[in-house]
Amino acid sequence: MHTAVHRSTSPKRILIADDEPHIRRILQTVLEMAGFEVDLRRDGTDALEAVRSSEHYDLILLDIMMPGATGLEVLGKIRSMDERKSTPVVILTAKGQDADRQAAFSLGADDFLTKPFSPKKLLARIHEIIDRD
């Protein structure tokens, strides 16, 4: 059963910051096929540049372990910015340790997923988070 992608005016934009090229490719493919616009960044420095820009994002996906700045550092920055503090953020990590999970949620993450993740599950979470308004 195929359901039509309902779009309100324009596609939702998602910022993805991950230093692993294959993870970026998987995320880009899955999200673009689902009708999202994707902005890919390869490290924490790139991600900070993106969040400091005037670009609109409906959701931000951050890997924890990245060169430049960690996903948690980027998350902290996002939550301190008036124009970004309500943007949903999902943390992706290969570590999945409780300390990371607690740190992510205490910094204001909307969700925390460990790699390897199910693209279908990730997509379902993204839809839940974006569509909850």
In short:
The protein has 133 residues and is of the alpha/beta class. Helix content is 39%, strand content 18%.
What does this structure look like?
- The protein has 133 residues and is of the alpha/beta class.
- The chain has a single domain (13-130), classed as Response regulator (Rossmann fold, 3-Layer(aba) Sandwich), CATH 3.40.50.
- Helix content is 39%, strand content 18%.
- The protein has helices at residues 21-33, 44-52, 71-79, 98-106, 119-130; strands at 13-17, 37-41, 59-63, 89-93, 111-114.
- Strands 2-1-3-4-5 form a 5-stranded parallel beta sheet, with helices on both faces.
- α1 (21-33) links the parallel β1 (13-17) and β2 (37-41).
- α2 (44-52) packs parallel to α3 (71-79).
- The model has no long low-confidence stretch (mean pLDDT 91).
How is the secondary structure organized here?
Blueprint: E1 13-17, H1 21-33, E2 37-41, H2 44-52, E3 59-63, H3 71-79, E4 89-93, H4 98-106, E5 111-114, H5 119-130
Parallel strand pairs: 1-2, 1-3, 3-4, 4-5
Helix pairs in contact: 2-3
